Amino acid sequence: PLGSRLGPFVGDLQIVAADGVVTADLVRQQLLVGWTVLGGLDRAVALATEHVNTRIQFGKPLAAFQAVQFQLADAAVAVAGLRELAGFALWRVANDGDGARGDVLALRLHAIDAARAVLRTCQQLHGAAGVCDEYDVSVITRMVQPALRLPMGAERTATELARAIASDGFAGLFPHGADLRAT
């Protein structure tokens, strides 16, 4: 509420316009959510890395096992990809405003997919402790869940992304149909 201490930071959020199109308010809000999810995933990977380096199993740290190294590498790559996409979406919003709707929705869709994979991996690497609230990875997982489901899940996000691409086009991080071979 405007009379509270946080009043200056509160505003009405119009999610869908009368014509059913996702509004600029939601685009900006979802950009912030994408960065929030990125921060959670980044911290979860750091916690998992710390855990597997300090947890001794069969006489050596869990990090010494190749399967664990592959899981952590996959999680780190997913977070790095999300970071690049989040940075690009932020740049697009700053430069193109409402025209960046597709980019932000692509960020949201990728954040949902990356979060599922990364958080699952980080919890598994913690073993049974990964689902106990005494461990931060469990708290991060719970904290991120509403962001992945509200105001829409993956299926609705994909539908909105298709609509945005149809109406606005999609700049994307890489040019479409580009010849990526060395010249």
Could you explain the architecture of this structure?
Helix content is 63%, strand content 2%. The model is unreliable at 178-183 (pLDDT under 50). The protein has helices at residues 24-54, 66-96, 101-125, 136-149, 154-168, and strands spanning 56-57, 60-61. A two-stranded antiparallel sheet has the order 1-2. The radius of gyration is 19 Å and the shape is elongated. The termini are far apart. The relative contact order is 0.14. It is an all-alpha fold. It contains 5 helices and 2 strands, in the order αββαααα. A hairpin with a 2-residue loop joins strand 1 and strand 2 (60-61).
Brief rundown of the structure:
The C terminus is likely disordered. The chain is elongated and about 60 Å long. With 183 residues, the protein is mainly alpha-helical.
- Portion in strands: under 5%
Task: Give the SSE order as H and E letters.
Answer: HEEHHHH
What does the largest sheet look like?
2 strands, antiparallel
Low-confidence region ranges? 178-183
The proportion of residues forming helix, as a percent range, comes to: 55-70%
Principal-axis shape equals: elongated
Number of strands: 2
N-to-C CA distance: 59 Å
How many helical stretches?
5
Structural class: mainly alpha
Order of neighbouring strands in the sheet with most strands = 1-2
Mean pLDDT: 81
Radius of gyration: 19 Å
